[in-house]
Structure formats: C-alpha cells, structure tokens
Amino acid sequence: MVFLAFILFSAFLAGMFWLSTAPTEAVSLMLSYAAGLSMIFLPCTLPLVFIVVPLSMGHGYKKGLAIAALFGLGLSITLSFYGVAIALLGGWLGLTRATEWMFMLAGGAAFIFGLAELKLLKIRMPAYGGRTPKFIEEQGDYLKAFFLGLFLGNAGVGCPNPAFYVLLTYIATVGDVFQGWYLAFIHGIGRATPLLFLSILGILGVNATQSIVKRKLAVEKFIGWALAYIGAFIFMNGAFGHDWYVQSGIHGAWEKVVEITLGAKFGEIIEHTHVVKQSGFMTFGNYVLVFLFTVPLIWYFFKRRKEIASLPPETPPETVAAEKDRLRRFGVIAFIVILLSFFAFTQLFPKIVLPLVTKEPHSNNSR
Questions:
Q1: pTM recorded for the entire structure
Q2: Residues of the chain with pLDDT > 70: what percent?
Q3: What is the rounded CA–CA span in Å between residue 173 and residue 170?
Q4: Could you tell me which residues come within 8 angstroms of residue 61 by beta carbon, excluding any fewer than 6 positions away?
Q5: Radius of gyration of the chain (CA)
Q6: d(CA 367, CA 350)
Q7: Which Pfam family is one of those matched by this entry (predicted)?
Q8: CA dihedral for 288, 289, 294, 296, sign (positive or negative)
Q9: Count of Cβ atoms closer than 10 Å to residue 81 Cβ
Q10: Sequential DSSP letters for 154-216
C-alpha cells in the first residue's frame, strides 16, 4: 500500500513537471494525463477530495482501495463522454470553424471564471454541492463509489484549467470520436490519480486534506490569475485567428524561447519561416490583448482598495496598515506588468521579433 502511494505521488510530480515545461500545443496522451493531475488544485474539483477520502476509509486496505479506484473509473467514463461530444461537435462544424469557436468559447469561459475566482465577478461556479441522487445513496459500497464517480465527473467541467481547454480544442479540431474518447478518458485517469493517492494516505491513517484546506485561498488566487491571462490569450486566437497569432510576433517569440530553454525537440522540428500578410485588423488584436491583460489588474486594485476602506472601525490598526502595504506592493507590480505588456505586445513582438522570424510575401513591384 505504501509502495503504491509512492508510485502515485511520483506520477503526480512527474506529470506536473512535464505540464509546467512542455509546450501545451503538443497535445498528446501525456498532456491529457498531466492536465487531469493539475485539476486537483481547482476550487471546482477540490471538494471531491472530501468525498472520496472518507468514502474509502474504514473498509480495510483492499476494499478501500477498490472503492477509490471505482470512483476514479466512473469519473473517467463521464469525462470520456464529454470527449465524444466535443469530437462530434467539431466534426459537424468543420476544422476551421471548430477551431475558432472552441478557442473563443473556451478562452472566454476561462477569462470569466478567472475573474470569478478573483472575486471580481459573482458567478456560481459549477461544483459539487453536496447532494447526490437517492438512487446512488441506496447502492452498496462498490456501486455507490462507481456511480458517484459517474455523477461527480461533471464537477469542474465548466471551470477547468487552461491545459484542459487546449485539449478540448484539439479534440474538436480533429473531430475523431475515438480519439476524443480516449484522450478524455486518460484525462479522467489523471484527475483520479491524486484522489487515489490521498485516499491511500487516508486508509493508512494520514490526513493530508488539512494542508490542502490551509492553502485553498492561495490556490484560488493563483488559478484565478492563470485562467484570466491564459484565457484572454486563447480567446484572442479564436477571435482574431491563427494569422493574428503569427503576425503578433508571439508565435515566433514563443518558438525561440522553447528552443533556447527546452531544446529543439520541444520546438517545431522542421525549420521554417512564417509568411505574414499585413492586416490592420489583426494588428489591432495586440491592443485588445493588452486591454484584456490590463482590466483584471486595475479592477482588482480598486476592488481591494474599496474593501480596505470599508473595514470595520474595530479592525486593529496594524491589520489595516498591513493590508494597505500589501495593496501598494500589488499596485507597483500591476503597473510594471501593464507597462511591460504594452511594450511587449505593441512594440517588441510585432516590430522587433516578427521581422526576425518571418518573411514578407513578394509584391508585384519587388525585384
């Protein structure tokens, strides 16, 4: 049992390391699995820990492990159905339209959910609310765990991390039902891995859920900023298209960074240059991206300032001073991020990086 827990924890660490270093455009089984692993940190799926761990405790090692595994199996099956549905939708819309619509919908959803995690918007996040159908409650231990996994596999589908959005977009653009099924199923196994690991710890008498609860607020903020910023970028890929991605200079800059930091095997293997058709509309997209990057920072700053100003009079002065100091530091960081974003997306990438990695199409007057 201890050895199995070690294997699961090692798989979790390896998957998280891979997800943090590999380019997410390289969609594969490993990305599907690693994206599933990272879902444990999302507030929408975190409550599953407090369901499967107590469910598997108090039954002995073998039965407890079987209950946790059946819960993970049900979770994976439900997610595989989502993969099939997305693949069918992509096949119906067609390759180009599916790509654009999936990027816009996924990016827009990620951006909105990110703002909600930062408490800038009040949205009821799709999460487990503590109620299960009576039919499930009446089942035995094994069937109950399996059906709970099927039922709760829906938790977190509406607010996954950005890597899962990339996976869904890939499934839609390919439009292959079988590929959509097994990629989503592998993603479900990734989600179930940390749950199974925590269940084993619970069976062994180690309560690891308390440390997760203590870091819940920090995790929510991190996920919120990540969803907002990566969601904004994904949305832009759908709204302005892949040509904007190339013309913005971001594509070329990313390739160079990947090649320098991770080696050529992580970059695009075939050496190439990008041909870009200049378009005022696509150039305007860079300013839209800066706007989407700026809004959450300014909004969060003024919201926090209002919250600090409305603190009760009995609040200790040192607490108020600490909050104001923390807000000032955030303001400085936000100001720097806004300036760097404006310079990078309107000057550095399109005017300096882009000419280095692209070639202009020949005009009729060229000699």
A1: 0.66
A2: 66
A3: 5
A4: 1, 203
A5: 23
A6: 25
A7: DsbD_TM
A8: positive
A9: 16
A10: TTTTTS--HHHHHHHHHHHHH--HHHHHHHHHHHHHHHHHHHHHHHHHHHTT---HHHHHHTH
